[in-house]
């Protein structure tokens, strides 16, 4: 069956899919029987309903946590600053990692 997941337009897609789509590639590798395609802010998932629902659950969790853009900047989404190696931005990202891990364990 075919399913769609719409990512809200106020979310930077890189925060969900990762730099160079690494998060998306990882999800695809975990569900090799699914066909997962992205067009704009819509994710199309074809395949087994149970696995497709699991992917949607994972994406919903990623959207809910949105850990990659939280920190001392509030809704920080200027990835170019982090990719440029600005130490204060990298440190805020590093500081957010334990919080994200704790939330995943809960």
What's the arrangement of secondary structure elements?
Blueprint: E1 2-6, H1 13-17, H2 22-30, E2 35-39, E3 42-46, H3 49-65, H4 79-83, H5 87-105
Describe the structure.
By secondary structure, the chain is of the alpha+beta class. It has 2 domains: about 60 residues, Ribosomal Protein S8, Chain: A, domain 1; about 40 residues, no CATH class. About 50% of the residues lie in helices and about 15% in strands. It contains 5 helices and 3 strands. A 3-stranded antiparallel β-sheet has the order 1-3-2, covered by helices on one side. Strand 2 and strand 3 form a beta hairpin. The termini are far apart.
List descriptors.
106 residues; alpha+beta; Ribosomal Protein S8, Chain: A, domain 1; 2 domains; 3-stranded antiparallel sheet; 52% helix; globular
């Amino acid at each position: 069956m075919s399913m769609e997941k719409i990512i809200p337009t106020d979310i930077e897609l890189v925060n969900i899919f990762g730099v160079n789509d690494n998060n998306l590639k990882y999800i695809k590798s975990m569900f090799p029987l699914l066909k997962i395609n992205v067009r704009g802010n819509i994710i199309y998932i074809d395949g087994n309903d149970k696995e497709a629902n699991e992917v949607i659950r994972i994406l919903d969790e990623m959207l809910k946590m949105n850990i990659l853009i939280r920190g001392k900047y509030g809704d920080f989404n200027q990835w170019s600053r982090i990719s440029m190696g600005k130490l204060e931005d990298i440190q805020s990202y590093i500081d957010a990692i334990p919080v994200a891990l704790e939330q995943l364990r809960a």
